[in-house]
Design goal:
2 domains; 29% strand; alpha+beta; binds calcium ion
Length: 228
């Protein structure tokens, strides 16, 4: 039987390898932003290592006989602290084919806010230059619940268009760009909540062709909510 230390090391390396494979596949970041991506990955790996070490050191691993399957499968560690969760979502919104007279574009209607990344495709891209139409959105999200009141996470997006020609005049590329959002949600009372958000977006060739923008976007937000 594999001892626990080696097992946790293996799981962390596995998670880092999967993350690296995802970034390589989905983001193909330009060289000047590789450093930032490496930093994001480093933070994620460090957090995973801390949680993994805590699970080993304090015996949380033994609380869950199904931990290894949870870890390796979907990795929601519901029995250990902070309930780390990693999800991938693929969303497709059809675009208008310029070769046909009918408009095939998906009608996004009006969006409501439910949770980060549910309807708005990134806090920068989704609010300022992307509609839920003519869009392919890859989303990788990591989330930790520190308590019932405080949760935090990171969301990576890779955006593509379905029909470059109707994305913008003269657009030939399907690569719209990437975005990374960090968030912290804090339930202050049963009615009030406070959220902190930091976002970083990098336009791809399609966004550059459509808007002329080549510089990356940085965005911060403090959000006070009241629900009843
Ligand atoms: Ca058409």
């Amino acid at each position: 039987m594999l001892d626990c230390k080696r097992y946790i090391l293996f799981v962390i390396l596995f998670i880092v390898a999967i993350s690296l494979a995802f970034f390589n596949l989905l983001m193909s970041p330009p060289s000047n932003e590789l450093g930032l991506m490496a930093l994001f990955l480093g933070i994620t790996a460090f957090a995973s290592a801390l949680v993994g070490y805590g699970a080993y050191r304090f015996g949380w691993v033994n609380l869950s006989p199904t931990l290894r399957w949870t870890l390796l499968g979907g990795y929601q560690l519901s029995s250990i602290r902070f309930q780390p969760k990693v999800t991938y979502r693929y969303a497709f919104f059809q675009g208008d084919d310029p070769g046909t007279p009918a408009n095939e574009a998906f009608d996004p209607l009006l969006l409501g806010f439910y949770d980060w990344g549910t309807w708005w495709q990134g806090e920068i891209a989704g609010e300022y230059f992307l509609a839920n139409s003519n869009l392919i959105s890859h989303q990788v999200r990591g989330h930790l619940d520190f308590s019932d009141a405080v949760g935090s996470g990171v969301i990576f997006y890779k955006f593509e268009n379905d029909q470059p020609e109707t994305f913008g005049p003269g657009v030939a590329s399907t690569d719209v760009g990437t975005e990374t959002d960090f968030y912290v949600d804090w339930k202050l009372t049963s009615n009030f909540s406070l959220s902190l958000l930091g976002a970083f977006a990098s336009p791809g060739p399609a966004a550059e062709e459509a808007t002329g923008r080549t510089k990356s976007f940085k965005y911060g937000m403090l959000y006070l909510g009241y629900s009843f």
